[in-house]
Design brief:
Elements lengths: L1 H14 L2 H4 L4 E7 L5 E5 L2 E7 L4 E5 L4 E8 L4 E8 L2 E7 L9 E6 L5 E2 L2 E10 L4 E5 L2 E7 L4 E7 L2 E8 L7 E7 L4 E9 L7 E8 L2 E2 L10 E2 L12 H21 L1
Parallel strand pairs: 1-7, 9-18, 10-16
Antiparallel strand pairs: 1-4, 2-3, 2-5, 5-6, 7-8, 10-13, 11-12, 11-14, 13-19, 14-15, 16-17
Length: 258
């Protein structure tokens, strides 16, 4: 019986659960370039002009499938082909070395249900700093996150004192700031800007989630894209999804055996 349950669960993880397949398209556009006023178009059609840093536009009404998102100012223009499926954030931001123009990174939103007493925290590195650690209440929560990567975890709903620090320790690059994690919500934090010009800041986005009973839920497993970013800056989604699901399976088995 246990073997059958494991095989059934593994099949669900590897093929994608029915719940995840039913997530409707929800595309959000995030402006992560401090000091810039950005015009945004999708497939050549204007979405919004003069978008300021930290603004979140959306959800934008788009159909599933491939779309071209363009971010443009008087000084630069960058674009990305986005395959819309489920809930996603499209973020324009500076790369780790600043560069001549920003880059665009697409992040999938994990909108799976959470226990009713917890929230899901996702932190993304989209700032002009080397790999960094994320601390909460003085304790390291995530480590060695590079530009374009993210990490995620389910945490008790409360307010945390969060900071971005150089990997291995040092003076905070951002914060500490008080961050309220709501129960039944996905809280996404994007570190943006650069410490050298005092523009380090954060975009905070909160999305509602469905909840499950807080009783008897298995231990959660931290996930993210750290270590899954290709040399060109894109995320190896297939590898990331596979290992995320495998880790979830191991976490489920650990909770079952307790």
């Amino acid at each position: 019986m246990l073997l059958a349950a494991i095989l059934a669960l593994l099949t669900t993880f590897l093929t994608g659960s029915p719940a995840s397949a039913k997530v409707p398209p929800a595309l959000y556009l995030l402006q992560g370039v401090p000091g810039a006023s950005v015009d945004i178009t999708i497939d050549g059609k204007a979405v919004q002009s003069g978008v300021a840093a930290k603004d979140v536009i959306g959800p934008v009404d788009v159909s599933p499938g491939d779309h071209t998102v363009v971010f443009k100012t008087a000084d630069w223009e960058v674009s990305s082909s986005v395959s819309v499926a489920g809930s996603q954030d499209v973020v324009v931001h500076w790369p780790a070395d600043a560069g001549k123009q920003p880059v665009v990174t697409v992040f999938d939103n994990d909108v799976a249900p959470v226990p009713s007493d917890k929230g899901r925290l996702m932190v993304a590195h989209t700032a002009v700093v080397p790999p960094a650690d994320i601390t909460a209440g003085g304790k390291t929560l995530f480590t060695n996150i590079a530009n374009g990567e993210f990490v995620s975890a389910e945490v008790p709903a409360t307010t945390y004192s969060v900071a971005v620090v150089p990997t291995g320790g040092g003076k905070p690059l951002l914060g500490p700031v008080d961050l309220a994690i709501k129960a039944g919500a996905l809280t996404r934090v994007f570190a943006i800007g650069a410490p050298r010009d005092g523009s380090m800041d954060a975009i905070v986005q909160v999305l509602p989630l469905e909840t499950t009973s807080a009783t008897g839920t298995p231990s959660t497993v931290d996930t993210g894209s750290a270590g899954f970013v290709r040399p060109d800056g894109s995320v190896d989604t297939a590898r990331l999804v596979f290992w995320t699901r495998m880790l979830s399976l191991f976490g489920w088995l650990r909770g079952w055996s307790v």
